[in-house]
Write a structure and sequence with these properties.
The chain is mainly α. It has 2 domains: 1-63, Arc Repressor Mutant, subunit A; 64-212, Orthogonal Bundle (Tetracycline Repressor, domain 2). It contains 10 helices and no strands. Helix 8 runs antiparallel to helix 10 (191-209). It starts with a helix and ends with a helix.
Length: 212
């Protein structure tokens, strides 16, 4: 009898986990579409719940805030991009500046598909109300690690000054990358135009880390 009760409890627990995961996926899918069509600020939790076909309470049972939902949407979206960068970076040729240009060009081309989401991802970096569990732009160590590996190879190849502070260079590159996205709002710039601006900025930053 006791074994039957344990088995029943286990089955119920498994069903709840499946239900929670299904709710989570529906919320993320609904938020992904709404963030892109209405913008992050223009989307409410109530609208996400309605689109997902769940209650508002179910959304908050799964996520602490709208900012956390955005973070998860972006994490799921960016994971394939980082996997692709991990794959191609070791095979890129040219100086460090050129390899960085190629890396960011890949990033722009990928994000051109859902530019509004990435704008919200950047803007969230300045939202002081986000809970600690949120991961806005700049807190993703994976991207920083990819840039750092590129710079470290530059040190080994002799075109990055070994006395350079690599974290400062990473911060500059990520700041320049995010700042170019203002052109999406101002001029509806496409990936090619954003890449051209970033290429020039990488050149300026590279002038600072070349060996003297």
């Amino acid at each position: 009898m006791k074994a039957d009760a344990i088995g029943t409890a286990g089955a119920l627990g498994g069903a709840r986990r499946v239900q929670r995961e299904a709710t989570r996926n529906r919320v993320l899918n609904a938020a992904r579409d709404l963030f892109e069509t209405q913008g992050y600020e223009g989307t409410t939790i109530r609208e996400i719940a309605r689109r997902a076909g769940v209650s508002v309470g179910s959304v908050f049972t799964t996520f602490a805030s709208k900012g956390e939902i955005l973070s998860q949407v972006m994490q799921d979206r960016l994971e394939p991009l980082y996997a692709e960068l991990d794959r191609v970076m070791p095979h890129l040729r040219g100086c460090t500046a050129d390899r960085l240009r190629s890396m960011f060009a890949i990033h722009y081309a990928f994000e051109a598909q859902r530019r509004r989401q990435f704008l919200a991802h950047i803007a969230a970096a300045y939202d002081w109300t986000l809970p600690p569990t949120a991961r806005p732009y700049g807190t993703t160590l994976r991207l920083q690690d990819i840039i750092r590996e590129c710079l470290q190879k530059g040190v080994e190849d002799g075109d990055v000054d070994p006395a350079s502070d690599l974290q400062e260079i990473i911060d500059l590159l990520m700041a320049a990358y995010a700042w170019t996205y203002r052109l999406v709002v101002r001029t509806n710039a496409n990936a090619h135009e954003l890449t051209a601006v970033m290429d020039r900025q990488i050149g300026l930053i590279a002038d600072g880390f070349r060996p003297r």
